Amino acid sequence: MTIDIDLKDSSLNIPNNPKKKAKGIKEENLSPKEKGTKKSKKKKTVILTIVTLLLLGLGFLIYKGYIFSHDFGFRLKPEELLGREEKTLKKDPTGKFTNVLLVGLDTRENSGLLNTDTIIMASYNYETNNITLLSIPRDFHVEVEGEVPWYNRINSIYSTAEQKEEGTGITALQDTVERVTGQEIQYYAIVDFKAFVEIIDTIGGIDINVENSFTDYLYPLGDGYQTISFEAGPQTMDGETALIYSRSRRSLQNNEGSDFARAKRQQKVIIALKDKLLSSESLTNPKTIFGILSSIDGNIRVSEFSTNDIEAGLELLKKFDENSGKTYSFVLDPSVGNYSLVENKSMESGAYAIGPKAGYGNYTDIHEFIHLIMDTPALYEENARVLVYDTGAGYKTVLELTEKINQDYPYLNISFAGTLRDDKEEVIVYSHEDGKNNSTVQEFSKYLKTDLKTAPDYITTNLNGEDVTILVGSNITIEEE
Questions:
Q1: How many whole angstroms separate alpha carbon 332 and alpha carbon 480?
Q2: Residue 15 vs residue 171, higher pLDDT
Q3: Helix ranges, 120-212 (H)
Q4: What is the dotted CATH code of the domain comprising 97-379?
Q5: What are phi and psi of 142, to 5 degrees?
Q6: Do 100 and 120 form a contact (C-beta atoms < 8 A)?
Q7: Torsion angle of alpha carbons 325, 191, 303, 149, nearest 10°?
Q8: 305: three-class secondary structure by DSSP
Q9: Residues 300, 191 contacting (CB under 8 angstroms)
Q10: Where would you tag: which of 3, 122, 185, 328 has the fewest CB atoms within 10 A of its CB?
Q11: Are 142 and 157 in contact (CB under 8 A)?
């Protein structure tokens, strides 16, 4: 860059001598004041050059950032830059939750697929600062809208719509998830395998506690297969290892070969990724941020968001961390809701399928269950087997009490186990394993108005092998509604 300086500027005090102008003035012949002035001019020239280069660089970054963010989903709203109102994310009609649809897109080379084999609804509860994750398995069959309604795997909804009209896939999938869950989705994010791997590598890997050892001899690799194995226990995974761990579904060991086990592992990876981001300086490290942005450029697409959403989202992450928020996991498989919501379905083609027990397209019970797990996730995640015993209140009284508990806490495994004693007054709720099922014990202790949470001396066995025992003595009172 060239800076033009007017040599007639009187501040330089150059004599009107053509020869000296042509040959220049030697610095040793200048007075101290003239030397200082010349150095000041040079300094200004350097500063102007640096500032100009910085502005040009900043302009280029802004341009690239605009192109990237426009494709990514960002919309700059000038009024938000000027406003001072509280920054907040969009919420559901109750004002209690923000729901995000997380989609993992199968974009393997040479596959020609656009199947969404990861479908998770993540809900943030503003009252408790907890997050609930709900996975919908790929084999869950839903109605496909058209001139003649029919049913197909939910993981094909995106691809089917996208093939008909580009850009409509995510809308079709979001509408379907909203019908199944009964919840309104505020945001979505679609991530392909490439971004998944690179983001995890950028933050230095994630820590996963592998619950069960397993080997998959048919893990897809290009046009063939490879054998992969995982040993139980804590380990740090790079991006490729985490991808394999979350995608494997052909193992014959420890029930790890089902799509439901895979959905649970995918949630473990998401939780580990969230924990790594919150427990390190990843979100404040420019190198890491640029690495993540580079990874997601072209490999991730999200719903429209603004500066308000960005600030509110960062504040939410901070709040979640500061308040020790917890994350709870659920999978919409046949075991969910005490085996009362989803069942295996017979298909004429012989393909494996699951769907609502109430019938294809009937999600009323599922809506009720999802409402419960979003409000009291700890209780439903424990899913403890609870047995209720009569120890002094009388057989009929305790039987009716058990029925009332089941009405007030549907979709849990609670049963009446008969009369154990007839001479006790206390009402006791306790777990048979220290440190487990604490939420269940706390909930039913409060419900039955008792502070006794330890097994009494007259109980010397694990009774019928339940997780939590409720002993109902003569002091019980059942409130009439």
A1: 34
A2: 171
A3: 157-164, 169-181, 193-202
A4: 3.40.630.190
A5: -130, 165
A6: no
A7: -110
A8: strand
A9: yes
A10: 3
A11: yes
What does the block give as tokens for 18?
Answer: 């053509």
Task: Give the residue extent of every domain in the chain.
Answer: 10-60, 97-379, 384-472
Second-level CATH architecture of 384-472? 2-Layer Sandwich (3.30)
Pairwise CA distance, residues 143 & 124, whole Å: 28
Report pLDDT for 191.
Answer: 82
pLDDT value, residue 299: 56
Q: Look over the chain and give the mean of its residue pLDDT values, rounded to a whole number.
A: 80
Q: Which long-range contacts (CB under 8 A, 24 or more apart) does 289-296 make?
A: 291/198, 291/202, 292/199, 292/202, 292/203, 293/68, 294/198, 295/194, 295/195, 295/198, 295/199, 295/202, 296/72, 296/191, 296/195, 296/199
**For residue 12, what pLDDT is reported?**
39
3-state secondary structure of 46: helix
d(CA 53, CA 61): 12
Does residue 453 carry a pLDDT above 70?
yes
AA letter at 76: L
